[in-house]
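Hi R.,

Here's the chain you asked about this morning:
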Amino acid sequence: MVIHVTAVFFASFILYNVWPGSSFFSWHPTCMCLAYGLVMYEAILVLSRQPILHIKWSTKLTIHWILQGMAVLLAVVGFLVIYQSKISKGKNHFETLHAKLGLVTLIATSVQAVGGLCAKYPKLIRRQLRPLTVKTLHRLAACITFNLGCISLITGLFSNWFLDQMADSHPWWKCLAALPPLMSVIVVLQVLKSVLPYFKKK
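And here is the predicted structure, written out as tokens:
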């Protein structure tokens, strides 16, 4: 339960301070925080082998790809918002570390989405890779993609825009930068636990 509360608390804090709709730009951190800090995180956790309300594995998979679809959509919208915002202000694109990481993260997310389709429909590439191999690669790639998302969230917390938003707040809020790495560790451990049997068979 605590691992879920962590994500909800982080997302709630960000949304409260960016106040979605307060400006066109505010939709960028809103969408990205929801995509990587909550929806994608929960999409991965739902595949835990731990019993979750006695939900069947097939149902978990359905919930997983629905949530992942939502995460991808949110990420794309968030990207389009910041891209349009830069154009309207006459600013250059992808100049900061946060922007460059964000671009790499979005590309990885798009590739991972394609990998997810291959994992769901293994017949698409059965001649190239075995279904089990595809699923294992998908899980490992998910781990990398989520970690990129977490790093992007952390750099976003220390972007000039967000620091201006938090200028009148107590410095303790910076401790929240520890939450994305915590979520990242939880995801890494879950993924490793799921793929280790595959490598033992090898």
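One quick note: The first helix runs from residue 2 to 18.

Cheers,
M.
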